[in-house]
Amino acid sequence: MRPTHNEKISVGVVASVLSTATFFTILHSDRSFASDGATLDEVVVSATRRDTLAKEVSAAVTTLSAARVRREKLVSDALSETPGVYLQQTTPGQGSAIIRGVKGSSILHLVDGMRLNNAIFRSAPTQYFSLIPVTAVKRIESIRGTPASLYGSDAIGGTVQVVTRVPTFESATTTAKGELFAAFDDAELGRTLRGTLDVGNRNVAASLSVEHLQTGNRRVGGGDRVGPSGYESRGGRFAVALNPDSEQAWLFDVHYLEQPATPRVDELIAGFGQGVPSSSEFMFAPNRRIFAHARYERTRGLSGVDWRFDASWQRIEDDRISREFGSELRNIEDNRSDLTGAMLMASRSMRRGSWIA
Q1: pLDDT digits (tens, 9 = 90+) for 16-74
Q2: Contact partners, residue 90, CB within 8 Å, separation at least 6
Q3: Which residues contact 73 (CB under 8 A, 6 or more apart)?
Q4: How far is the C-alpha of 230 from the C-alpha of 265, rounded, in Å?
Q5: pLDDT of 298-348, one tens digit each?
Q6: DSSP codes, 23-81
Q7: Residue 61 φ/ψ region, left for φ over 0, alpha for ψ in the -120 to 50 degree band, beta for the rest
Q8: CA separation (Å) from 53 to 4, 44, 45, 58, 276?
Q9: What does the alpha-carbon distance between residue 19 and residue 13 come to, in Å, rounded to a whole number?
């Protein structure tokens, strides 16, 4: 990861207009530089299942900041500029990470340590990483290699984890802060609108965010538009953080994202060597994800041990409508997977090193 200057960003309202020729941003920024030269950020990652400085992790880890992710239409789009990660896109509106030559169920996908991989994950490219709200992301971590001993059997090629943003305030007085993002992309006739509002104080804080994206057919290099390739995405997130004292923290978090009807373009457009397309119809209608997560953290608990307990429930719906080219038979699929997970983690810092269970 290329080092950057230490930079603190405080944003009241962010408004952007994005096109093939224009990018305009209104942003307030406070930059801090040391008098004898620039300082470097200390990057914290959870590649060891607990927060650790990136320089102390032996694995190949790359992080993407929330600011980087917010420039994209979908969370998966941000992976396209991650070293060692190739983004495969069967169709706009979706994206699948390829790490060390493998993809799909051979890559472990996590959200705050809880598994995104489920019963309908397959070894081929999967689109489910696109079903995470952009407004929920604090950072994305990609671990390249085979950390299966730490994360489980799905982590054959690597692990991609989304760490979500927790609403926090330093003052004891209840205050509010928000962010608004709007963008237009004339290459795909895309319109994006996102908003976030945080309210609370140092003991109790809540965050509500909503987002909506709609694109038209994609314009290719020659200027023509390939259709159908437009899609719509809408979602939101609600989180409540409780901090009774300096040693305890609770988090309750709910995510929702839906793509009502996303076409699979490679089936609907004649490819190399084809005279006609493979299908007359092929729509993901809808793709939907609902995620509920509760977390409790206790520092310096019994015998000086730090404890963390997570419990989550996730439902992914992957309904499809398809019809082979020239056929009168339409196939309607109803696919869904429910996943319930729990994790208990204990760690303690010792004079020489630390241990984690």
Answers
A1: 333 333 333 333 333 333 444 445 456 665 555 566 665 666 567 888 999 999 989 99
A2: 96, 125, 127, 264, 265, 266
A3: 134, 185, 190, 192, 213, 215, 233
A4: 9
A5: 988 777 888 999 999 999 999 999 999 999 999 999 999 999 999 998 887
A6: EEEE--EEE--BTTB--B---EE-TTSS-EEGGG--SEEEEEEHHHHHTSSSGGGGGGG
A7: beta
A8: 15, 4, 6, 11, 53
A9: 20
Listed residue (190, 188, 167) closest to 179, CA to CA: 167
Helix (H, G, I), strand (E, B) or coil at 135: helix
Residue written as token pair 């000086």: 304
What tokens appear for 109 in the block? 């996908």
CA distance 168 to 198: 8
What pairs with residue 199 in β-bridges? 176, 206
> What are the backbone angles phi and psi of residue 48, rounded to the nearest 5°?
-105, 15
- Enter the tokens of residue 298: 């206790």
Task: Please give the Cα distance from 166 to 250 (Å, whole number).
Answer: 10
- The answer to whether the CB of 173 falls within 8 A of the CB of 95 is no
Q: Which two tokens stand for residue 265?
A: 């373009």
Query: How many whole angstroms separate alpha carbon 136 and alpha carbon 165?
Result: 6
Between the alpha carbon of residue 173 and those of residues 11, 204, 263, the distances in Å are 20, 10, 48
At 106, list the tokens. 């051979």
Looking up tokens 């007359």 gives 280
C-alpha 53/C-alpha 38 separation (Å) is 19
Backbone angles phi, psi at 67, to 5 degrees: -60, -40
What is the tens place of the pLDDT at every residue in 110-151? 999 899 999 899 888 899 999 999 999 999 998 887 665 677
Q: In this structure, what token pair is assigned to residue 69?
A: 């992710």
| Secondary structure element (H or E) that encloses residue 333, with its range | strand 331-333
The pTM of this model reads: 0.82
What does the alpha-carbon distance between residue 50 and residue 3 come to, in Å, rounded to a whole number?
22
User: Which among 223, 324, 219, 314 is positioned nearest to 264, based on CA atoms?
Assistant: 324
Task: Say how many CA atoms lie within 13 Å of 8 toward its Cβ.
Answer: 4
* Amino acid making up residue 241: A
**Residue 116 in tokens:** 């995104």
β-bridge pairing 158-164 and 107-111: parallel
